[in-house]
Amino acid sequence: MTPQRRIRRIGWLAALGTCIALYALLHVKVNAVHAEVVRAERQIVQLEEKNMLLETEFLTRSSQVQLAAWNRVDFGFEAPRAEQFIESPMQLASFGSPRTADAPAPIRLAGMTSGEDMPEFPKLVSPLTGKPVDERVLAGDEPSGGHVAVAIAPGPLRVPLAGAAEVATGSSFAIAGAATR
After folding, report:
1. Which of 178, 138, 143 is nearest to 158 (CA)?
2. What distance in Å separates the CA atoms of residue 91 and residue 96, rounded to the nearest whole number?
3. Per the domain annotation, does 29 fall within a domain?
4. Structure pTM?
5. Rg (alpha carbons) of the chain, rounded to whole number
6. Residue 173, strand partner residues
7. Residue 54 domain-assigned?
8. 87 and 4, same structural domain?
9. Which burial class, exposed, middle or buried, applies to 166 when counting CB atoms under 10 A from its CB (0-12, 13-18, 19+)?
């Protein structure tokens, strides 16, 4: 390689290095300007939202004046005075009127505190026959004497075939609250 070519190569490398450095500086400057533009756009959006909020508040306050005028002139409303406020539920109850003759009876709740005076629980009666349900049916045992237990339970109902034959002949039914699946 001749010294002339070597100087030319070094010159090209210096020019390329200068171009890369200038490109890097330009790139940094463009990113800085872009960040400023984004910041300015965000500030514009915030100011527009604040302006819209202030416009809404102004319209609300101006309509309150109009509403107050309507209340005073057209409807005759006025703000409550201090003596019109109620301090307790008893004071509120004093404003009530006595019950009229055609008013429904008040709802009353009662409860028992001891089990001594509890009445005996009534027996479960079949809605079809009106006769008491056999307690063995309620316990889950097989009824005897021609009864068929019809169960009220979620899911499919299983009736023994022997029971279905008794149903056809007209024997009595019992309804139980639980069934086998």
Report:
1. 178
2. 10
3. yes
4. 0.32
5. 47
6. 148
7. yes
8. yes
9. middle
